Amino acid sequence: MVNMNGLPNQTWRNFVKSLEEFDQPVKSAGDYIFKLRLDHPDIVMAQCIEESGTFTSKLFREGHNCLGMKVPSTRPTLAVGTMMGHARFNSWHDCITDYAIWQSTFCRRFTRDEYFAYLDRLYAEKKGYSDRLKNIIKSRGL
Questions:
Q1: Contacts with 128 (C-beta within 8 Å, 6 or more apart), sequence order
Q2: Is 98 helix (H, G, I), strand (E, B) or coil?
Q3: Which of 8, 114, 122, 123 is the right S-S partner for 110, CB 3.0 to 4.6 Å?
Q4: Cα separation of 43 and 38, whole Å?
Q5: Do residues 64 and 84 lie in contact, with contact meaning Cβ atoms separated by under 8 Å?
Q6: Residue 49 contacts by C-beta under 8 Å, 6 or more apart in sequence?
Q7: Which 3 state secondary structure label does DSSP give 91?
Q8: How far apart are CA 109 and CA 112, in angstroms?
Q9: What residues in the chain have per-residue pLDDT under 70?
């Protein structure tokens, strides 16, 4: 059986259950990721956790950037400025929406393996990014 997000129901239940273990802002981010129908929502949620220090970093708290987004030069963006070399947003909703624009522009419909490879090649600043995301997905049951 598949739910409205195209995921097997058990995968959806596991994802929701893992979110319930976090604070409300984290659960809200997960809900918003699903609402936008992003590809690979578990990977995106793992990126939020990795990039924001589990929603505690200064970039997240003051710049509302939960995904380590930079200000783009070739596509529309919701960024309202820069902070610490990264994009600054009016809200974390805007950050995730900006990520949705990025995803639909550059890597829509990638397989899971293609997506991880793309993140390692063009998104991440440090080696081992996809391995860290996979560990977050596994350890948090995403």
A1: none
A2: helix
A3: 114
A4: 10
A5: no
A6: 26, 55, 136, 140
A7: coil
A8: 9
A9: 1-27
Both tokens of 66, joined, read 């939960």
Helices and strands counted in the chain (H then E):
7, 2
Nearest 5°: phi and psi at 85? 80, 5
Q: Give the number of residues written for the chain.
A: 142
**Residues in contact with 60: Cβ distance below 8 Å, sequence separation at least 6, in sequence order:** 51, 52, 53, 66, 92
The whole-angstrom separation of Cα 75 and Cα 96 is: 15
Q: Which two tokens stand for residue 35?
A: 């609402």
Nearest alpha carbon to residue 82 among 100, 103, 64, 105: 64
